[in-house]
Amino acid sequence: MQSSSQSSSTQSHLPFPSPQVDGLLVLIPNRIDVEEESRLYDELEEDEDVNESPALQLSRGPPSTYSHDIWLGDHVGQSSVFSRDVRISGWTSVGDQLGGAFIVYDCAIRTKEGITIHAHKRFSDFAELYHTLKHTLPHHLLHFIPPLPPKSPFARYRPAFLDHRRRQLQYWLSVVLLHPEIGNCQAVRCWVLE
Predict the structure, then answer these.
(1) What share of the chain is helix, strand, coil (3-state, %, to 5)?
(2) What is the C-alpha to C-alpha distance for residues 4 and 7, in angstroms, rounded to an integer?
(3) How many angstroms separate the CA atoms of 127 and 120, rounded?
(4) 41 vs 25, 44, 67, CA distance in Å?
(5) Is the alpha carbon torsion for 156, 158, 159, 160 positive or negative?
(6) Tens digits of per-residue pLDDT, 90-113?
(7) 85: part of which helix (H) or strand (E)?
(8) pTM for this entry
């Protein structure tokens, strides 16, 4: 008698119908055969590779290091932006602080061809590019240009402030140079190469 009361109390607490009661569910074994799943997955991948044309396989380019489904050559030629990566690797103070020193940032810009261009720019150069873009770009692109980081005349030579500003300028420059339309404009190209 006790076993029948236990089974009815177990059935009432289940969030789904019990197979003993309705026969609606099919019990799946408690284990998954990993080897069988792996074999089936490998067969599926082999079938997909066979179905592709050799021309398509060659045109893809090298595979991504992150996924076998993403190919590095997928978007080659679709964007006319010449840079692939932007880093501001550091900054240095030029001159002495009493006699008119200024800070120069080392902008390492990697092109689509893999060439790294080091452009040494002052904050005023970034401000000049910002204003040039605001005056020369079409109106529908202006909202893509983020504001420049603020100036701080009292903290401008402190290392913590300069490193924070370096990170902010790197973000700003990445947004500008890697944008598909803005990164290709003449003002950006001239700024990088001057």
Answers:
(1) 45, 15, 40
(2) 5
(3) 14
(4) 27, 5, 15
(5) negative
(6) 888 888 766 678 889 999 999 888
(7) strand 83-94
(8) 0.58
Q: Which residue has the tokens 């490193």?
A: 163
Show contacts of 30-38: CB within 8 Å, 24+ apart: none
Amino acid letter, residue 37: E
Which is nearest to 147 in space by CA: 159, 134, 156, 158? 134
**3-state secondary structure (DSSP) of residue 9:** helix
Q: Which of 87, 91, 126 is nearest to 107 (CA)?
A: 87
The Cα angle at residue 68 between residues 62 and 71, in degrees rounded to 5: 40
77 Rama sector, left if φ>0, alpha if ψ -120 to 50, beta otherwise: left
Q: Cβ distance 61 to 72 under 8 Å?
A: yes
Q: How much is the average pLDDT of 40-55? A: 59
Residue among 123, 109, 134 nearest 165 (CA): 123
Residue 172 phi, psi dihedral angles, 5° rounding: -60, -50
